[in-house]
Amino acid sequence: MYNYFNKFKILFMKLFSCLSICYAFKRVSLGLVLIIGLNTIAKAQFQAKIDSILNLMTLEEKAGQLSIFTNDLNERGDFIQDQYITLITKGAVGGIFNAHGAEYTRRLQKIAVEKSRLGIPLLFAFDVIHGHHTIFPVPIAEAASWDLKAIEKSARVAASEAAATGLHWVFAPMCDVSRDPRWGRVMEGAGEDTYLASAVASARVKGLQSTGFQDADAVAACVKHFAAYGAPQAGREYHTVDMSEITLRETYLPPYKSAIDAGALTVMSAFNEVNGVPATANHFLLNDILREEWKFDGVVVSDYTSVLELINHGIASDTSGAAFAGFVNGTDIDMQSSFYNHALPALVSKGVISETRLDEAVAKVLELKFKLGLFEDPYKFCSKEREKRVLLSPQNLSESQNMAKKSLVLLKNDGVLPLNSSKQKLALIGPLAKSRQDMIGGWYAAGNGEIAESLYDALIQNKNVKELMYAVGCETTASDTSHFQEAYETALQADQIILALGEAAWMTGEATSRSSIDLPGVQNQLFSRLLKTGKPITVVLFNGRPLTINEIDHYANAVLEAWFPGTKAGSAIASVLFGDENPSGKLPMTFPKSVGQIPIHYNMKNTGRPWDGVTNTTSRYTDIDNKPLYPFGYGLSYSTFDYSSIILDRDSFKAGETLKAAIKVKNSSSRDGEEVVQLYIRDLVGSVTRPVKELKGFKKVLIPAGKEIMIEFTIDENLLKFYNTKHEYASESGTFELMIGTSSEKFQTCFFNFTK
Would the pTM count as exceeding 0.85? Predict the structure, then answer.
């Protein structure tokens, strides 16, 4: 049918104007097939059709378009509660999330299109955070690659797999800046820095949405969690966020803005309150900033039951009050609460909420469905053939492996890595050595941990391993030490020890805040016991957040931060251990020495009494120094890189001009390597206090062995702007320190002047 009408698209375009009023058919979606496909018209051209649909809808059907429900959190595959089937038939559901699979989504879509009164197609949504079936490293790991093209490619693969299973909409990317590793969802973001997080957010949106939805291999992105969800008090999930407007605007909002500027079609409001008002009912965030300042005209969806939770927050006393507060303040879609279904029709009928506001929200949802092409073909994403061809394809698995290699960060190496290519006896020990499920981390969508590669799987097949001996040593979180002796005896027989430690995957993600970020259970004790063997120890860390690993840093011969690397974890790690891959990752988040240092980040303020390492009456601790264990931007390589002095093309510049800063970086080693060259700037004097340094640029470059290349950055006025006392985003004349180097703590420096 759809092919037939597409064949006569030109004819029907000519008839558009007269048909736009007259098509009051029972099947609106079929009528719209007759008119035109999304990809040949602009918003203004299909606005008339949106209006005609609205004219056909009851208040209950409008509220239905603003309500989405879960497939079932406790079931996998093609299962849905009978009550939701009834709601779909009544036209009381705009979308379903957690439902995926081409055949299953087609069956649900058929109910909506053929059984409901108006036949408006459903949206199918899912949390596709770091892959769908092919699982990539967790997002903080991908951020550690500092490779924006690779991150975009990762999102592109995730989108293609998601779309192949019938999904239209993914709740990603997470754009929350976080400086507290106690918060479990740091694994889902890009770390502590605003500039890096903004660049990553843009890359992810571009990958997810690609160039559009013509070929049904892209999905609508959802920017979350708006806003400042990554700054809960004490790092405790869902907790209060309280900060100055300057901090909010300067540190936390830019990544969301970057994602929206990249074209993200939807935004998700956050669970938390911001300065006394829950984000889901925060007019300042959702209207003043998002709609008015940023000109976002897409859909805003609540987080899971966050409309209902307005009652717990204490700004509403019942269903009607919560629905009113969320809706009038800017949240268009209610996820799972069903409060909009129950309350909006009555609130509109009583005149408490205008039908104009209701129609505006419904129109945004219909527009999204138009953009996805669902009115032209409701089943365009439901292709079993494409599903079979795309999911877990060799190419996708290869991309996952490549991303994992780029995400690994070498934290310490006294020369034991790469492992000697001559065949060795290796003792692989630790609770995460054989684990497959943990390799794919949290929020793994439709991923299957059973098909993931463990470190054991990779090493047992490695040609450079003469003999691989294994012992568990201990469990991840348990206190049982009964396996220590077995691990010790196994290690004595080996040339070297590979010790796989860290967190279980379930320990990171939503609702996984920790008061301690030490290695859980008795893992530190296991490490201490194995030290007594005198054998070289390489620790491979699996985790979704920075950990406090002082003893390991001090005594281990090498430490490799693997994060949760995804489906191809084992082979990616092995390639670095044996030197087939030269590690190039850099930390996107500071590793503290102690939980007492939190929050800790590289771009803190100087204070009136900055710590100088000597004077007692300065900003310091009495029991530990201020420095982190590993700073932001840090990561080692098997290559060595030497930085020359910075060369400026001028000492000063004015508004409207630019300044160029160049630096020579030489690979003084015998092997090729990638280096992340980082640019930081400090405003020495401002009308408000400025951080001691801020990342303002970076370039990841491949430098051949023995070669020297010139890296150039351009500095303009925009890089110098900040929010002043009047909350204006503006630059100020003055002297600036410019730093270029290999991390936030190791760099070359010079100064320049700027005049407005």
Answer: yes
